[in-house]
Amino acid sequence: MSTATAPVIAASPSAFSRLWLGGRQLSVAASAVLLAPFFALLLLVFVYPLLSLLSLSVLEPHPTLANYARVFDNPVYVRVMLRTGWISLLTTVLALVLGFPIAYMMTRVKGAVAALLTACVLLPLWSSVLVRTAAWIVLLRRDGIVNNALQWLGLTGEPVKLLYTEGAVVLAMAHVLLPFLILPIYSALKNIPDDYMRAAAMLGANRRRAFFEVLLPMSRAGVWSGCLMVFLSALGFFVTPALVGSPQELMIATLVSQQVREMLDWPFAAALIGVLMVVVATLTMVFNKAVSFNRLIGGGA
Amino acid sequence: MSKNENTVRHRAPFDFGALSLRVYVWLVVLFIMVPTLIIVPMSFSPADFLEFPPSGFTLHWYQEFFGDPQWQKAALLSLQVAALTMVCSVVIGTMVSYAIVRGTERFRSATQLMVIGPVIAPHIAVAVACYLFYQRLGVVGSLAGFVAAHTVLALPFVVFTVSAALSRVDPDLESADMSCGASRARAFFHVTLPLIVPGLLSGALFAFIISFDEPVVSFFVSSVRQRTLPRRMFEDIEQNLTPVIPAIATLLTLLSIAVLIAVALLRVLERRRRAE
Amino acid sequence: MASTATQPPVAGSERVGGAGIEIRGLAKRFGAVRAVDDVSLSVQPGEFLALLGPSGSGKTSILMSIAGFELPDAGSIAIDGRDVTYLPASQRNLGMVFQKYTLFPHLSVLDNVAFGLKMRGVARAERHRLAEQALATVRLEGYGKRMPAQLSGGQQQRVALARAIVYKPKVLLMDEPLSALDKNLREEMQLEIKRLQSQLGITVVFVTHDQGEALTMADRVAILNQGRIQQLDAPKALYERPRTRFVAGFIGETNFMPAEIGPLRTQGALVQLPGGASPCEVRTDALVGRVAAGGRAVAALRPEQIVIGSPEDPAALRATVSGVIYSGSTVLCIAQLSDGTELRARLPDPSRVALAAGDRVGLLWPADALRIYGDEVAAA
User: Fold this and answer.
1) Lower Cβ count inside 10 Å, N or C end of chain B?
2) What is the mean pLDDT of each run of 10 residues along chain A (301 residues)?
3) Cα Rg of chain C (Å, integer)
4) What's B12's DSSP letter?
5) A21 touching C, CB under 8 A?
6) Distance in Å, alpha carbon of C349 to nearest chain B alpha carbon
7) Are strands C220-225 and C48-52 parallel, antiparallel or unpaired?
8) Is residue B13 within 8 angstroms of chain C, CB to CB?
């Protein structure tokens, strides 16, 4: 499980820090040499291009905040921002409703069933986003299976427009991002020693109460971590909204794409990216602070 | 006290709550698996459009994929990029992992930031930034461009996998070798490397599949003549959705399953090796 | 109101009274291993019973069965006359303290203690009052608002104790609760727990692998090995009259040496020890198990009962000193018998010991100190 939870571990700095506790035998110089190619690559292909792009947003055509002003002054673009936030929120909620029970179940099954469940959760993680999105397009088309099923069940008389709607985007993104929610929650739940549930039972809590009063609060950090991962990923998601969403109802990523490829308005696109990055960075930092504060008062796993 | 002993299994009345949880979970699992599985039969359909259930059985679409020079070119490019990404990210990633597990603490925060950065940063931002950068350099659509960007994206996963494997190796083993006169490099290749090979291979497989399936950066960084497989798929899905897409999707899914199985086997192999 | 008691009663510590526990034929397997093998015992109301044994002996399994976390494969458990074998743990109304405190980290100390009352539907104000009382009982008044992470190990264990007794259960189960504490703290907590138990009058079943702890705290100790009870007795009896070889070796220090059994008489047997000038007489009540004339057995002797004397003494066992180790208040003298068996002797007064390696000595002991263990009969 550990290898596949890499994105999860990324969100918890403490796990990363733990790796540093091993024997520190390398000198500073040797460490630097080993790290040099990595830093070089990242600075060249990641940091510099990003900074370069963001600088466009405040330097073109002359040092100005006009590009950002455009983002917030124009109601069309404001609507895009809000829509992105709303869809991401819905996606997160849907993923939580679908994924939490799975994470919980995963902690309680053993043997072949556990392996099957794990495989079902991991496979989407390592298969192509395009494949999964394409599958949803296939399912949700007017002549697709879902529509056929609805008509066959007598729920609708004629094909319903399912594709190219906000609902389709939420559904498809929740499907794609589900593993990112399940894995952190599973990890958090699994790390709670059995004795806590036993203690709760001993004190008179039946299983339902033990779950709500003990297990859930103690896995809080994992739940928030998973939700955050899904939310932040959804904010910047491109593929699914581009293929499954309506061209009239853009999200940030599809708007950026349009600006860059059709309108060639780079500064504006850069400003949009800037807004996105600020939101992502802020939420990440706030979350990290909250998690370490939480740990300070002894909360959660 | 076995870790998996749950609270009481008692001769209780019918546990409705537990049953409905079970049913719900398996329904969600169906929700997860059905979209991926349903396109498989569709790839065998003889019709020119997508139909389910398929009215017949044909491998025509697979043949179309393998026969079409455009698809071949895209697939080949993706393979090349993925292979190179795999090599680069494993080499660089292993160096970083070694520095993390055995190195000085001085660089910890900076390294942490750099490793987590590509994971947290939205792919659209990375894609557009690289596109701009490459445009300025005139390397849009170049092999190096693809590989560089994909390596950045794959590195965090390689670093996590390999450093986890490294942390399970006893540092004393290397020290012992060094006290016999070997240099640290030799000790690494002689002692440590064989032990982390399964972890390395897992990281390599992850890097490969991340690169091969990567849609966003490929979308922006592809040029008209140099398009990766995901880029080509993207266009076809938008404009010309025929059962070729399910066929390709099926092949990709098989690839993912193969990677998953390989990684699982590698994990077993590593555990067995460590026991020796 | 003047009180004639020497100590003012601690708040919330009115006598609760204990329940009796009847365990009959308890058995539990994990795969091929018999964790608990046909165990029967009775715990008296208000008794402090320790379950003592090495890891894997089944002591924890028995506790878990009483608690309701393990379903036994066979047998029954009754508390206060009521059969609880298949009753869910949450309905048994027992108190339990775990090895790792297991305080809920997201709740304050007060909320932790009040948890059991909350589960029983007690109103907020009332349960806070009772929780404060319980905290006072374990001498942690005023700690209610703190979070568990802010407390030391000993304090956390006391909170766990308060949490377990606040709803006045008649039985308190303790699963090696002190093994995570350091030595001084452990001894302090042992006294606390004993004091609490006698004040409340509740029954305590205490699992431990530390024999010193069991002997100090318990009214009776059940020694377990491989799923069976080897002996169930008061600490003194266990120490002075161990009924099996295992118990003799497990409790306190014991020397074992091979013995040859001579003729059996009505009042005892003649036993020949290696290096003994003449056989010694051992009374019948010091013979354990099947001891046959002419057969072999194992003789057991406690180190502190051995006295060093002259090798010429006809009653003494001849030995050669192979080591002398000073350890604070006693001296450990290791002596080798003629057949190579090493005996350890604990001598009380270091200043009067003038032994060196190589000295030839004679070992003497009080008449009833030697016990002979023959083949084990089916365990008691």
Assistant:
1) C
2) 38 54 67 91 94 88 82 90 95 95 90 89 86 88 81 77 88 93 91 91 90 91 91 94 88 92 90 93 88 56 36
3) 25
4) P
5) no
6) 45
7) parallel
8) no
Structure tokens at A180: 């990112």
Distance between CA atoms of residues C300 and C282, nearest Å: 12
- pLDDT, residue C190, reads 92
Helix (H) or strand (E) holding A13: helix A13-18
**Length of chain A (residues):** 301
Q: Does A208 touch chain C (CB under 8 A)?
A: no
pLDDT at A11: 44
Which residue of A lies nearest to B110 if distances are taken between CA atoms?
Answer: A39
**A7 neighbourhood in chain B, CB within 8 Å:** 119, 157
Distance from chain centroid for Cα A147 = 29
pLDDT band, very low/low/confident/very high, at C169 (cuts 50, 70, 90) = very high
C231: three-class secondary structure by DSSP: strand
Specify whether the CB–CB gap between C207 and C58 falls below 8 A.
Answer: no
Percent of chain C at pLDDT > 70 equals 95
CB neighbour list of residue B233: distance below 8 Å, 6 or more residues apart = A130, A134, B215, B245, B248
Taking each helix axis from N to C terminus, what angle separates A266-296 and A48-59, rounded to the nearest 10 degrees? 120
Residue A297 has its nearest CB partner, among C104, C147, C163, at C147
Contact A57, A270 (CB under 8 A): yes
Q: How far is CA B230 from CA B119, B215, B226, in A?
A: 20, 5, 12
C-alpha C147/C-alpha B272 separation (Å) is 43
Cβ of residue B1 closer than 8 Å to a chain C Cβ:
yes
Which residues 49-78 of C are in CB contact (within 8 Å) with B?
60, 64, 68-71
Partners of residue A197 in chain B, C-beta under 8 Å: 6-7
Give pLDDT, residue C156.
93
How far is residue B69's CA from residue A220's CA, in Å, rounded to a whole number?
52
d(CA B27, CA B14): 21
Chains in touch with A (≥3 Cβ pairs < 8 A):
B, C
Neighbours of chain B (3+ CB pairs under 8 A): A, C
Nearest Cβ partner for B8 among C30, C60, C69: C69
Q: Which parts of chain B sit beneath pLDDT 70?
A: 1-14, 276
**How far is CA C302 from each of CA B239, C247, C248, C272, rounded to the nearest angstrom?**
92, 13, 9, 18
Which residue in chain C is spatially nearest to A207 when comparing CA positions?
C90
Distance from CA of C124 to the nearest CA of B (A): 28
